[in-house]
Amino acid sequence: MPKLERDGEVFVLHLDPDDENRFHPDRLAAVEAALDEVDAAAGPRALVTVGGGKFWSTGLDLDWLLSNADRSAAYLDRVHALFARTLASPVVTVAALNGHTFAAGAMWALAHDLRVMRLDRGFFCLPEVDLDLPFQSGMSALIRARLTPATAHEAMTTGRRYGGGQALAAGIVDAVAQADQLLAAAVERARPLAAKARPVRAQIKETLYAETLTALRTPTAR
Amino acid sequence: MPKLERDGEVFVLHLDPDDENRFHPDRLAAVEAALDEVDAAAGPRALVTVGGGKFWSTGLDLDWLLSNADRSAAYLDRVHALFARTLASPVVTVAALNGHTFAAGAMWALAHDLRVMRLDRGFFCLPEVDLDLPFQSGMSALIRARLTPATAHEAMTTGRRYGGGQALAAGIVDAVAQADQLLAAAVERARPLAAKARPVRAQIKETLYAETLTALRTPTAR
Amino acid sequence: MPKLERDGEVFVLHLDPDDENRFHPDRLAAVEAALDEVDAAAGPRALVTVGGGKFWSTGLDLDWLLSNADRSAAYLDRVHALFARTLASPVVTVAALNGHTFAAGAMWALAHDLRVMRLDRGFFCLPEVDLDLPFQSGMSALIRARLTPATAHEAMTTGRRYGGGQALAAGIVDAVAQADQLLAAAVERARPLAAKARPVRAQIKETLYAETLTALRTPTAR
C-alpha cells in the first residue's frame, strides 16, 4: 500500500515497491487519503510520487473490473476524479517514474505538473489500441491537453513504448535521471516550487484546463 | 488517375506522376474507391500515398470549381469527407511527399498519420493568404489539431513554403528522405504499424479529434 | 507616451523609454490611436512595437485599478479588446522585447504574430500565481492558444521568469538578438511580411482563433 512521508516541505508518496500499483479500490482509497493529508497541510508544500520496483503504475485494475462489472462506471468516475484533483491541485506534483507507467497509470502521471523518468529501464506507454480499449472522453482530453499534437497522436494511436530518453525527446517527461538519483532529482525539482501551493494556483489551473476538467468530472454513462 | 497496389501488408496508392493531382471530382472518386478497397480488406494493413513527379497534390481544382460554382458546397463537403475519413481511419496512413504539397493537398497530407518528405525539392505550403482564400472551419480545425500553435500560425497566416528540412524542423513532417529512397522510407514506417488497423483505433481517433471531425462533417453553407 | 514612426512599409510603435509601459487608460488610448493609424494606412505594411529602456510592458496599471475599482470591468474589457485586435490583425505584428515583459504585457506580446527578445537582460514572466491574481478566461485562452501545452502550464502555474535564451528554447519568442540589434532584427522580420496585410489574413485569424477571440470579446462580469 502507498505510504506518505515528509521531507521538509516535500511530501513523498511511496507507491508499493512490490506491486504494479494498479488502481484497486483499496489502493485508490489509500492514495486519496494521502492526497487529503497533503491538501490539509498548511503552508508551502509539494508532492513527489514514486514507486520502488519495476513499476510506477499500470493503471486500471482489470481483474477487479471483470469481477465487478456492475460497478465499472462508479470505478471509472473515481479514477477520473483522481486525475482531475491531481491536474487541478494547487500543490506542485512531480511524478518520479521509476518503472513501467502504463495506460491509466500513464494518464495519472500526465496529470502531475512534472515528470522525471528513470533513464535505463521502464516504459511510458498507452497500450489501449492493442488491448481494444477506447479512451474515455475525459482521458482523451487529459492526454491531449498535456502533450503536443504529434506526441498525443503517436502515443494514443500506436501504443508506442517510450523509454526515458524517448519520452524526454517527445516532451512526455521533463527530465530523466539515473535510477539511484531519480527520487532526489524529483525532490530537487519539487522543493523550490513548494511556495507556489496557493489557492490562486488551483484557480489558474481550473481556467487553463476548464474543458478537460469538465470532461473528467462528467459521470461515466451507466 | 490514382492506382492502388499492394506490397504485402502495405497498400500503396500511386497518385498520377504526370499531374498536379488536384481534386477533380473524377480523381476524388478514384481515391475514394481506393480507400474503400483498403477499408474492405481484412487483417493487418497500412496505406502509403505517393506521387511520381514534381507534385504530391496541389489541392482543390479551382478550374473545375469556377465552371461549377453551383456545386461548390457539395464539392467542399466531399473534400472535407476525404480529410475526415483519412483522419479517422483505423488503418495507419503515411503520406510520401514526393513533390509540391499545397493548399487542400497539404491538408490531406496532415490528415494522414505520418508524413515523410523528399529532402531536395518540393514545398509544403498553405498559400491561401496569398490567394485571398479563407479556410473553411473544418480545414482550420484540422490544421490546428495536427501542428503546434506556432507552426499552425506561421503556415496559415504567412503562406510560408517549407522545404523538407524546414518542414521537419517545424514538426510538419515526421521524417525526410532522398528522392530515390522516399517511397521505401514511407513503406518502412508503415509496415510495422499494419497490425494497428483495428476498429478500436478508429474509436480512439474519433474521440481524440471529436471537434475537428464534427467541423469537417458539418455541411458547408449553401 | 507611445510614438508611431514609419520606416518604409514598417510602422514602429515606440513605447515610452522612461516608463514601465503599464496599461494606464491614457496609454491605452494612445496605443489604440496608433493601431487605428496603421489599420487605416493603405497597402503593404507591418508593425513593430518596441520600448527603449528596461521595460517593454508590465501590463495592467494596478495603481489606477485600485483607485478606480468601479471601472475595473470596463478596463479589463478594453485590455482584452487590445489583445483581440492585435491577435486578429491582418497586419503582421512583431514585438521587439527590449526589456521586462510581464503579466498582461506578456499577454499582449503573445497576441503579436512574432516576438524577438533581447538576449542579455530582461524577463518574460506571468507572475500572476505569485500575486494571487487569477487569469481571466480570455487571457488564459490567449496564452494557451499561442504556446505549447508544457510551456503554457509552466509559465502560468509557476510564474517562471524566462530570459531571452530560455524564452527561445520554450518557444515563447521566435528569435533573440543583442540589445543594439534588437529593433533592426524585428524590422527585418516584419518587412518581407508587409505584403501579407490583406483582409483575408484577418479572416484566417478569426477562424484559427475563433474560441480565443470569443473569450476575449465576452464582456467581463460586472
UniProtKB/TrEMBL annotation, chains A, B, C:
<dbReference type="InterPro" id="IPR029045">
    <property type="entry name" value="ClpP/crotonase-like_dom_sf"/>
</dbReference>
<dbReference type="GO" id="GO:0004165">
    <property type="term" value="F:delta(3)-delta(2)-enoyl-CoA isomerase activity"/>
</dbReference>
<dbReference type="Pfam" id="PF00378">
    <property type="entry name" value="ECH_1"/>
</dbReference>
<dbReference type="InterPro" id="IPR001753">
    <property type="entry name" value="Enoyl-CoA_hydra/iso"/>
</dbReference>
<keyword id="KW-0443">Lipid metabolism</keyword>
<dbReference type="GO" id="GO:0006635">
    <property type="term" value="P:fatty acid beta-oxidation"/>
</dbReference>
<protein>
    <submittedName>
        <fullName>Enoyl-CoA hydratase/carnithine racemase</fullName>
    </submittedName>
</protein>
